[in-house]
Records
---
Amino acid sequence: MNTEHEQLSRSLEDLKAKNANSQKTVLSLEVAVANRGAAAEEAVDVYTRLLSNLGLFPPLPPPLQDIDLRVELNTASSQPENLLKGADVRHVVKPTLNAIIEGKRGDRAAVESERIKVDHELDQLISECENLEDEINEMEKKVMVLNEQADDLREASLFPISNSYPQFDSDTLLLLRICRSHRERPS
């Protein structure tokens, strides 16, 4: 009977140790569940803020106007399928978000294409402006040369025209005579 008593005492001690380990495990699991619940609530809050910032609260633009992307966390539920309230994440929320993303990508591609087109047109306009600026600079140089020649002609017209000015060719002398006759006309 003594051996039976000793076996029962050892069994009791083993069960007490297992019970203590089980309680420690339960406590650590409860803490882990509480931490995960808080993390899940934070994730749902971040998701809700993103929906708000992106303008995806109901009503969504057509053809998605009947879909509500909001979800709520129900940590009090004992059944995993009831933890999230709202549309089915796998079958409704995720495909809807993917459709919205694809639409936005298409819009972005169109905007980028338009930006490239505008940049190209702007580059063409800048090139044309540079060409016009070069032409204007050339014209200014020609005008300056013509003004200098006109000043020389004016100065030369003040003196009598004769063959004593060999630096002028016959066309210039003719032009000088015309200028002089024009000046000598009575007004």
---
Amino acid sequence: MNGRRDIELQRTQARLREQQEALRSQLVATELDLAITFCQVAATTKDAARYERNIANALEAFYAAVYFLNCNHLKSTLDLEIKEKLLRLDFLLESLERASDPALLHAEPSCALRQ
């Protein structure tokens, strides 16, 4: 009977791993959406403080996404949605970098994300 329980345990573990990967991908996609939104808000403001705050928030969301991508065991199989969001965010950050102080866009991630 232990054999049957072992098989069921393996199935449960596999199902939980799949769920974890799906949730991690969803979190990455959400963080990238958030970063894109902050970039769009920064691009439309004329207030320097608001601009800098939104760029910092965009980078924070981007660093969080990268952190969870690095935890992902399926990095080589990133889904199309995440790849498209990464490309869009890269374009937005590059265009904002050209329009402002480049040092701001190369800031370090927060201590919480460096762990």
---
Amino acid sequence: MAAYGTMDSAILGLPYGLTQDCFIESYPAAEAVTPGRPVYQTPGTVTSVHSTYSSGDVFMGIAVASQISHIGDVGTYAIYDVVNVLKKGEIWVQVAAAVADAPKAAYANSSGLFTTTASGNYDGGCMFRTNQATVSGLAVVEVNGIKLVA
């Protein structure tokens, strides 16, 4: 009888820990969305989310990993798919640069990666909870609700 291996502890878009309080809501995707990336909502379009920031958008949270498998886009949410969005809790994200001395504020860049650099990036009110020495590695970010990105 075959045995299953242990699950990876760090998967892009996977909520961190099972004992934490988290809040997840679902929205249709206005465009393709990658799990572990921030999602935004344009005021006046409260029924959908998108991953490309536009001026005046509201940070809604981070897309949660999906096991939906489309032939050409495994692991992503296609347009009109229902996206599960972590609005409060901790989740694994990809970093744009090394992170040290967590906890530190986490800012999203235009590619959806997270960094400690505020200048030129989007403030969703998130906080790094773990360190990551490797660029493009995974780190845990705490999300504390929706926020108007200024």
